Amino acid sequence: QVQLVESGGGLVQAGGSLRLSCAASRIIVMNTMYWYRQAPGKNRELVASISSIGETTYVDSVKGRFTISRDNAKNTVFLQMNTLKPEDTAVYYCYLYRSGMDCWGKGTLVTVSS
């Protein structure tokens, strides 16, 4: 099982930017990687994904503002978040599925003040 550790969260003003990182303990070159987020009292939602060949998806609410990327040599995925809004406030989680198991990080908190 892959261990995932997110970092880069924090407190930022609306309109600001943050870059989240997810470091994996094992090689992830063949895996689609995902960023999810969960706000208090809400369900966890898929924010973005990136395939093994670099194809990306985004939830409509972040299109044009967020960019997912990966550095397979460093076993790391990123989420660049620009023009942040208060509704982006959530715990952000990195995720992958391999060898029949879900692999989740513990999350990093992003708080956007108005």
Short key terms for the protein model shown above:
mainly beta, 4-stranded antiparallel beta sheet, single chain, 7-stranded mixed beta sheet, 114 residues
Task: Explain what this protein looks like in three dimensions.
The chain is mostly beta strands. Helices cover 0% and strands 54% of the residues.
Please work out how many helical segments DSSP would assign: 0
Low-confidence stretches: none
Overall average pLDDT: 96
| Outline type | globular
Tell me the span between the first and last alpha carbons: 39 Å
> Quick one: how many beta strands?
11
Sheet with the most strands, sense and barrel status: 7 strands, mixed
Secondary structure category: mainly beta
Topology overview:
Elements: E1 4-7, E2 10-13, E3 18-24, E4 33-38, E5 45-50, E6 56-58, E7 66-71, E8 76-81, E9 90-98, E10 101-104, E11 108-113
Parallel strand pairs: 2-11
Antiparallel strand pairs: 1-3, 3-8, 4-5, 4-9, 5-6, 7-8, 9-10, 9-11
Question: Could you write a compact summary of the structure shown?
Answer:
With 114 residues, the protein is mostly beta strands. It has strands at 4-7, 10-13, 18-24, 33-38, 45-50, 56-58, 66-71, 76-81, 90-98, 101-104, 108-113.
